Structures are given as C-alpha cells and as structure tokens.
Amino acid sequence: MYVDRAQPADIVALRTVVKQEKLVAIGEIGLDFFVPDYDREMQEFYFVEQLKVARDADLPVLLHIRRAQDQVLKHLRRIHVCGGIAHAF
C-alpha cells in the first residue's frame, strides 16, 4: 500500500536488518490489486525482492493478498520460502 514511497535502497536496508536482528518472519508483504490506482508492476517488483530476502534468511512470510491470488502463487512457485501465513480482507 506504500509502494509509491518505496525505493530499491529499502530492500538493502531490509537485508541489513534481517542480518542484524533476530526476526521470526518477513511481513507484512504481498500484493493488493483491489485499489485500481496502485502500481502493479512496482508492487510485484518489491514483493519478489521481499520474498528473496525471506528465502535467503530462511524466514517465513506474512502475506497480504487482495485480488491477487494467482500472481502471489506464481511468485511463490518461483521463489521458495520456508513457510508462512496469508490473509486477505
């Protein structure tokens, strides 16, 4: 929901925090295609990068999914994470 504020440096910062802190999951991440003006391409870029962080750190993910189930599953099939939970509203 804040993808318009995101920058590639945010992924670098996330990786740094993951290495320095004892985390239990990466979240809340996901895709939300309910609101028509959200940039889908940017959402998918950052979602994929966050999945890679979770995979590399062997952490589960907490997923937010709204009208984007097929796209989320597509990325989860390509980037295997150790587990997680999903919710939608």
**What is the strand content?**
15-25%
Q: What's the total count of β strands?
A: 3
Question: What form results from the Cα inertia axes?
Answer: globular
Low-confidence stretches: none
Word description of this protein:
It is built from three helices and three strands, in the order αβαβαβ. Strands 1-2-3 form a three-stranded parallel sheet. It has 89 residues and is α/β, with parallel strands linked by helices. Helix 1 runs parallel beside helix 2. The two termini are 13 Å apart.
Condensed summary:
The protein has helices at residues 8-20, 40-57, 69-78; strands at 26-32, 61-66, 84-87. It has 89 residues and is α/β, with parallel strands linked by helices.
Give the arrangement of secondary structure elements.
Elements: H1 8-20, E1 26-32, H2 40-57, E2 61-66, H3 69-78, E3 84-87
Parallel strand pairs: 1-2, 2-3
Identify the notable features of this structure and list them briefly.
alpha/beta, 89 residues
